[in-house]
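User: For a teaching handout, I'd like to show students what a predicted protein-ligand complex looks like in token form. I'll give you the sequence and the SMILES for pyridoxal-5'-phosphate. Please answer with just the structure.
Assistant: Understood, here is the input followed by the structure.
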Amino acid sequence: MPDPIYLDHHSTTPVDPRVLDAMLPYFREHYGNPANRSHAFGRTAAAAVEEARERVAQALGARYSEIVFTSGATESNALAIKGIAQARPGAHLVTTAIEHRSVLDTCRRLEAQGWRLTVLPVDRHGRVEPDDVRRALRSDTALVSVMAANNEIGTLQPIAEIGAAVRETGALFHVDATQALGRMPLDVDAASIDLLALSAHKFYGPKGVGALYLRRRPRRAEPLPLVEGGGQENGLRSGTLNVPGIVGLGVACELAVQSMDEECARLRALRERLFERLTGALDGLALNGHPTLRLAGNLHVGIDGVEPEPLLLGLDGVAVSAGAACSSGSVKPSHVLEAIGAAGAATRVALRFGIGRFNTADEIDRAAQRVIGRVQMLRGTG
Ligand SMILES: Cc1ncc(COP(=O)(O)O)c(C=O)c1O
């Protein structure tokens, strides 16, 4: 078996060694519970949590008191959407057809329970039209939820324009920024964002920890808690804090923002290299997502004339994701591909490459070679 090559960074990222180094003391020596400040163990842990809170806030242009730690973006999205909706029974919610399931399924459940829901379409590149958002807003709209960057096709949304439209109304603006931190500038004030969800493992931090930004001024985003008990995080998210994870999240945020410009330029060059290699050797290849307004490390391509399963099984250790999920022998295109009209035929596979911080040009060349070889073999042209 040849060396594995990891090109699935939208799914998760490896922990950066600098993040791990910062976390380790909070497993070994500083294991106190930050809720117990009557002794030095607790106080040391509490100080580390507050330092991390400051780091997360700085990465978003937010204030320190506006950050709530959670178990990841799924929980942050749930707290944002359910928490705000529950404070306004039966109100109207707006989201888009290409959100992550943690947003879409949460909105759908609320709809089934009596809230009103508008799901906005996207164009063929996966972009939401700000005028569509404007038209959807009503006097009873409580929340608009639009992701900053899509986890499949990488398309970036015009968040600031949408935020400005929402700000003119009484609704709050929630952004799922899980794929966006460290990959596009995020400033909650500049983009009129009221709530924002993050997950550390998407930007070289640990799994199982995330954050929700909640605006305090000029208006206040005040969700009802989903988890109650010890009253941690101002009563918004009870439960003993994951101190090592939170420390890791803070450092990962800082590194992501510091390295963003240089890293995005490098990833964009690697992505272009990969696309050139693939298109140079294979015909019947189509780019999904926006040609330029996309995540630097994202390449999503439809490949004609091959079935997903045999392709994926024969990639010789190249870790990528298929945009079509094969379940019990049938191929089901993702809701994102359906929304952009790229669902395609059973003999078309959609591959998502997610290039990351530690990938090299040599890995890109070897991955391209293995994909090309496999496609040519399956097409009988190799
Ligand atoms: C856009 C987006 N939102 C939310 C999530 C959920 O993140 P987590 O699984 O860390 O809770 C993901 C993870 O794939 C994602 O890509």
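For the handout, you might add this sentence: Residues 72-74, 100, 102, 147, 151, 176, 178-179, 199, 201 surround pyridoxal-5'-phosphate (CB under 6 Å).
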